[in-house]
Amino acid sequence: MSQLNYLEKLLDGVEVEWTTLGNEHAVEIANSGRKPVKAALRLAGETPYYGANNIQDYVDGYTHDGEFVLIAEDGSASLENYSIQYATGRFWANNHVHVVRGKEGLNTRYLYHYLCIVNFVPFLSGGGRAKLTKGKLVDIPLPIPCPNNPEKSLAIQAEIVRILDAFTAMTAELTAELTAELNMRKKQYNYYRDQLLSFEEGEGVKPMSIGDIYDFQYGKGNTIPTEGGQYPVYGSNGVVGTHHEFNSEDSPVIGHIGAYAGIVNWGKGKHFVTYNGVICKHKSNEVLPQFAYYILLAQDFGSKAKNPSQPFVSYDTLKEPVVLIPSLAKQKRIVAILDKFDALTNSITEGLPREIELRQKQYEYYRDLLLSFPKTEEAAA
Fold this sequence. Notes:
The chain is α+β, with helices and mostly antiparallel strands. The chain folds into three domains: 1-11 and 148-199 and 327-381; 22-139, DNA methylase specificity domains (Adenine-n6-DNA-methyltransferase TaqI, Chain A, domain 2, Alpha-Beta Complex), CATH 3.90.220.20; 201-325, DNA methylase specificity domains (Adenine-n6-DNA-methyltransferase TaqI, Chain A, domain 2). 34% of the residues lie in helices and 25% in strands. The strands form four sheets. Strands 2-7-5-6-3-4 form a six-stranded mixed β-sheet, with helices on one face. The relative contact order is 0.12.
């Protein structure tokens, strides 16, 4: 069934009116109640404290009570998938979110689902920290089906909400099941990896410190490069951007500082590592590079990080562990086994991560199908 035919059946030939979030008859903008509170001054409680992207804390008191949609004013984690949150009951909103809800004739949950597909980029201003001002917020278009028959309009909105909520619940359930399966696979992988890398002292193995296998060097720059380029940028936990320069190639990257201190990732091809990461320079002819990487993965560097308030791993922490190294032939056999486990467990194009991604895309497809109303020439402009 085509998108247009499906909507025609749902709408049953009724008119769709395009208005905006600034329509005071349809939308309430409840920004006046917002109140930012520094973390040190918040009183602990049970009320969720919302920021631009998520619940940041639980506090005593509240700024709003009811059913609302929270739209990031600034600080959205993604501009393409702009931060939209749905809040019910009592909650606290800081000044990094716009707080809106539907009035009589507009289902707030319908409003939430629709805003999730809006392209907010044309309405943003500013540079590094893009902002959605209230002046631009009120210009965002909003479709209301059957505006001249409020009862029928709300029935259509409710049906759209019912379908999308059902898809949301199903997608969340399937994602949770797949994520649990993925975590089990990772635990299984870690178990077999540790077993394969455990050796008895004696003939055929040689004790070596990790400092004998690698030289370590902190990456460059305290900020993520913003100019872009052909090389991936690695921070403390994987790729965080792109850059036109590289300072490492086909080697592990270890989180140096922050919450991900000690986390080990593989830097594929030429890449750039910021100061938040540690460049690992393989130097031993007695240890295969990929086997050395698996040795790093088996270390619990995170538990050895210093300074709990701002964890970091030092060169000494990385160099000190002593491991037993088998022959090159045995290393090769172990690497072949672990590579297969790694591909099954972690590859973004294979196995369960790919399935999770497909489930989410399926939900987004049907969401867009239900909310892509035909536009008038004025609304499309």
